[in-house]
Amino acid sequence: MISVILLGSGNVATHLYKAFKASKSITVKQWYNRTYSSISSYANEVETIDQFSDLKEADIYIMAVSDDSISQLSKDLPFENRLIAHTSGSVSIHDMDKKNQRTVFYPLQTFSKDAELNFSEIPICIEVTEKKNLQFMKNLAEAVGCKPYKINTEQRQTLHLSAVFVNNFTNQLYRIAHEISDAKSINFDILKPLILETAKKVQEMSPYMAQTGPAKRNDKKTIKRHLKQIESKEHKAIYELLTASIKKTHNHR
Prior knowledge:
With 253 residues, this protein is an alpha/beta fold. It contains 9 helices and 8 strands. The chain has an 8-stranded mixed beta sheet with strand order 3-2-1-4-5-6-7-8, with helices on both faces. Helix 2 (67-76) links the parallel strand 4 (60-63) and strand 5. The chain is elongated.
């Protein structure tokens, strides 16, 4: 059994706890958070603590905390030469205190506390400072059903940037579409099959080949009509920026 101590109480920490608990190869030895109330509801399932002095020995300590907290938390840990990991997409492995053996265990997915996730569909990006820990990190990922990828800090930070485009920015576009449709009393559910089909297509072909729409066709009349329909200056600017980007990609002047 792989023994894990989890540090943090946010969305990632909560989902990791559930995945670790469901694994037959992992035992969550303790769950630490400095604000005990954030994890107290799990006290009947796992030993929950809010003091570093209560930390026990484990195979790995996983810091699922905010990016800004990782460096200081790694310094505050009251032990040396143990295996620690952070779960961030953008923080360098070298930002952790080198008094311990440093690794990264980054699940590339969007996490909301109440959303159910199938961890077998989540890629885990792993990084180590010592080669001897690489197989262990792969085993940890596979123990929750994930496919591990050996990714260095620069690659992981690039993946995180790319993820902002495909997830955060895309979701903001969904919100804008919801606002535009809702203003005309249109049920947003009508757009959901299109959202799913768009995501499905890029599983089977490149985003370049999957592109459709008036900008791709250089349909100037439709673009002009759309711009007249848009009331918000901010939404209009976004439409014009994305239209120009698509036209440039597909060689329309």
